[in-house]
Amino acid sequence: MQETISADIETMQQYYQQDRYRAFVRPVALDVANGSAHLIHGFLGTPADMHGLAELTQSLGFHTEGPLVPGMAGEIDALGTMTAEHWWTTALAEWDRFASLHGGPRILVGYSMGGALALQSPPPGQPHGLRAALLLRAAEQPTAPGI
Question: Under a CB-based contact definition with an 8 Å cutoff, are residues 48 and 16 in contact?
Fold first, then answer.
């Protein structure tokens, strides 16, 4: 299926402001909930990259969320100001927020840079009920800032 771009979109910034490129939440009814899934996209990607997995996890009864990594998609103009430390800190804060609001078992999925962020998100010894982490094409030896 070929996508057409609306005539009123003139810049990449405008293009990535479309809803499909924003962070998403796909809830499930409490009576069928089996847990929760947190999906992190990769470098220069968007939450839309995780929509296929989100459909799967939601269909399996997992409340599913996909945050926007700072500096990507509609925030692309800020990419040059982003640092690895900012991405790590934001990923951890997002996981803490997610884990505090949603029941387990919790799964964490990261693609590419999202996989590297996923490895650092639940702090060692405090996995917030993390049941499983699925890393797709993640860096083999991610290093948190200052290490």
Answer: no
Give the model confidence (pLDDT) of 91-143 as tens digits.
988 988 998 888 778 899 999 999 988 887 776 566 677 888 888 887 655 55
pTM for the predicted model, two decimal places: 0.83
**Spatial distance between the Cα atoms of 105 and 72, rounded to a whole number of angstroms:** 29
Distance from the Cα of residue 94 to its chain's centroid? 9
What letter does residue 105 receive in the DSSP assignment?
A: S
Segment (H or E) for 99: helix 84-101
Q: pLDDT tens-digit profile of 40-77?
A: 999 999 999 999 999 999 999 999 999 999 988 888 88
Beta-bridge partners for 109: 39, 134
**24-136 CATH choice from 3.30.1240.10, 3.40.630.30, 3.40.50.1820, 3.40.50.1260:** 3.40.50.1820
Q: How far apart are alpha carbons 69 and 113 in whole angstroms?
A: 10
Extents of the domains making up the chain? 24-136
Task: Report the alpha-carbon distance of residue 147 to residue 129 in Å, rounded.
Answer: 25
